[in-house]
Amino acid sequence: MSVLTVNLGENSYDILIGGGTLPSLGRHCLERGLSGRVAVISNPAVAELYAEQVRASLAESGNQVTLILIPEGEEHKNAATLNLVYDQLIQAGLDRNSYIVALGGGVVGDLAGFAAATFLRGIPFVQVPTTLLAQVDSSVGGKTAIDHPRGKNLIGAFYQPRLVLIDVETLTTLPQREFRAGLAEVIKYGVAMDLAFYELLERDSARILEMDADCLERIVLRCCELKARVVEQDEKESGLRAILNYGHTLGHAIETLAGYGTLVHGEAVAIGMVLAARISLAGGYCSEGDVSRIVALLGRFGLPCIPPRIDQGRLAETLLTDKKSRSGIIRFICNRGIGDCVVVNLTAEQLLTLSGLEV
Ligand SMILES: NC(=O)c1ccc[n+]([C@@H]2O[C@H](COP(=O)([O-])OP(=O)(O)OC[C@H]3O[C@@H](n4cnc5c(N)ncnc54)[C@H](O)[C@@H]3O)[C@@H](O)[C@H]2O)c1
Ligand SMILES: [Zn+2]
């Protein structure tokens, strides 16, 4: 098992990563002073697979465990579901000495984290992420949120977990499409931040696709390290943390416009990265060879590289309404070669022209 500490002063915490770590959850919570009443928040699909192991481990360490299930899917990451969770936290008698465990993907982690941040003005919480996306991205960094009818993640808080426990063996039950979508985020770290890591992904692609546990532990660890180092320098996303959005500016817009269910997030990010690489090429930040290399690795992992047909006017409009654009200027992340990046200010029109998409 690997241990990584996220250094955030009094909000510091450990990320534990390994294969078969779930049964040790209770002990690791206890070691961090967490014991008493605990609510495990999950969804039916994940609970069916892993809730019993988690419950047993927590109970063995002397906890009184309540399982709270939220319905499956992003459409339930909202205030109505959150209210049902509060009801059950009160019903189960959780107090300020109690804590929450989020067991599931990013939807469960974001909502359970926000519940923990707000219930009784904040009680401790532990992330047990079970999707690749959640293990390499959403469980680390302390962003918690629910959606609003007007937009995703509009209501939330920065609230750090007390512990993140990752069991890479949980990935073996993940639907293939979700696993591959998570690999898009993994590739993102390589392209934007770490050439050696990118080379490792190229070299070990077969073992990754076979879900070799040692190999997965290594790549999840490296992604968490890279994200942790960024979060440590910019906990509240005032600057540097933007580099984690590599591939996401166009990716998000394409995800929104492609229509519900057409592309999963990671697939849209894959397309967003190809377009970002092309924009970087046009801006002189990377070579034709770098672009081909990115396309090749995405293809190797079964990710799409070609954008679906989208009305360019609507795409420009969506880019400008993105909460990260300011007065018509988009802070766009270009890759400098592979393994480094640079922030460039562009208009939506420049962005679309440089990416090779017709305006
Ligand atoms: N907080 C952050 O920093 C951050 C970063 C990125 C994304 N997010 C959020 O994360 C969410 C997406 O997360 P996601 O991609 O994990 O999706 P998800 O939570 O919807 O999980 C995807 C699917 O996999 C299933 N599942 C989860 N683990 C499983 C397992 N081990 N075996 C079998 N099935 C399993 C789930 O039931 C679900 O159907 C979005 O709401 C997004 O806004 C947050
Ligand atoms: Zn993402």
Query: How many helices does DSSP assign?
Result: 14
Runs in which pLDDT lies below 50 for 5 or more consecutive residues are none
> How many β-strand stretches?
11
Helix share of residues?
A: 40-55%
Order of secondary-structure elements: EEHEHEHEHEHEEEHHHHHHHHEEH
Largest sheet: 7 strands, mixed
Can you list the strand order of the major beta sheet?
Answer: 1-2-9-6-5-3-4
List the ions, cofactors and other small molecules found in this model. Answer: nicotinamide-adenine-dinucleotide, zinc ion
Beta content comes to 15-25%
Shape from CA axes? Answer: globular
**Please, what is the average pLDDT?**
94
Terminal-residue CA separation: 50 Å
Judged by helices, strands and strand pairing, the structural class is alpha/beta
C-alpha Rg (nearest Å): 20 Å
What key phrases describe this protein's structure?
359 residues, binds nicotinamide-adenine-dinucleotide, single chain, binds zinc ion, 14 helices, globular, alpha/beta, 11 strands
